[in-house]
Design brief:
two-stranded parallel ribbon; about 350 residues; alpha/beta; about 15% strand
Amino acid sequence: MSTASGPRALITGVAGQDGIYLARLLRDQGYRVVGTVRPGSSTFRSRAVYLSGVDVVELDQQDRGGFARLLEDVAPDELYNLAGFTSVGASWDQAELVAETNGMAVLRILEELIAYRDRHGAAPRYFQPSSSEMFGIADHQPQTEGTPHHPRSPYAATKSFAHHLTVNYRESYGLFTSTGTLYNHESPLRGDSFVTRKITRAVAEIALGRRSSVTLGNLDVRRDWGFAGDYARSMHLMLQVDEPQDFIVATGTSCALSDLLAVAFAAIGIDDPMSHVEQDPALMRPADVADLYGDPAKAREQLSWEPTLDFPAVIEHMVKIDIERLRTGIGEHESYLFP
């Protein structure tokens, strides 16, 4: 591993969308960054181009002993836990796996932070990414840091469990543990299984004459969509304040999936997207959340955090990059990250 001086950060799941944006931000600020990936990860092999200067270590999330050894080896000042199961829809078919990776893995990390502090007198500052899906059927819009949770999927339930664990270990053991409840945030690095990327890739293929339509489920669902690079910046800011806290990270507005379709198709000059859309009832979730958008006032006031890209700009950029990928055959390139 690198022996570079400066603050040290450990990022689990560093080859994911958020891990890449965060790792590059921290490297630019002089951090030594160590990141974990799943053993044999094909995602890391395809995305290594984005992680120059990052020390990458293979680690299974269920390997508590391996994590404890890595914590000793790196001795990080900051720990960002970005590994986990990220698909709401797929969590219905893999509920046990999502409970293990999003819930029990967090419990093991927090327990190891206590053990590390007992050995060394201090523990790294810890960031836990929470999800807007935890709010489920929220009793008011927008949601704030105090909005009760009513999760409507196995994914959301495990994120709520991890959120409350993080708060509890802060209040019970005095650890510096902060949560950021992240609303939907997108980029060209978003995986193909997510509806945003499914749409932008399909639109790119339609633009190039390689297909004629895209098949989707519920088009009325509304979400608060932002840019992953902005949300990674908020994570770092949360660990720079004097006291650990919980923050909502959102744009403050929601848009329907049909609005996303309109923006994506407009990016290729098509103003009638529904002529290219087929709906499949099989793509509907057993229990869905109609609308979610968050109030980022606390993050704005206490972190001086503001989004730099709005929803249309993010989707237009994703369409542009998916067209570039298809035209060139270059799946990943550093120039894809920002407009």
